[in-house]
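Q: I have 150 residues here and want to know how they pack in 3D. Can you give me a structure?
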Amino acid sequence: MQKLNKGDKAPDFSGIDQNGKTVKLADFKGKKLVLYFYPKDNTSGCTAEACSLRDGYARFLQQGYEIVGVSTDSLASHQKFTEKYSLPFSLIADIDKKIVEDYGVWGEKKFMGKTYTGTLRTTFIIDENGIIENIIEKVNTKNHTEQIIG
């Protein structure tokens, strides 16, 4: 698994979002992108994170950012999650785990004494030229908007 760093070129990606639309890195050329990876739809931390980004969405747009979420959940799961919480941004269903692996966020996790493999909650801030400007590995789910744009 590769480890990405600030200043690296963001790996190209392409995936299908909850609306059946293909979303790829090239779509955001000339814009800043918040690409956030999260473990699972409808779990407490992931819901808090998505709702923080939703609530700050207008501020992100004003500052030239777009937002895309990625998890390994299905399109159907993303559709329900988006509808339930009125999320205004794309959620990519990375069911083949290609994007999470390309970004180095598929790895070993521990929960309640058990070790398993899953998505490591991580946010990449990508600039207008596709360069990684920042990587947030210690995500504050309830205040993620503040963590990104203050």
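Q: Anything worth noting?
A: DSSP finds five helices and nine strands in the chain. The chain has one domain: 14-149.
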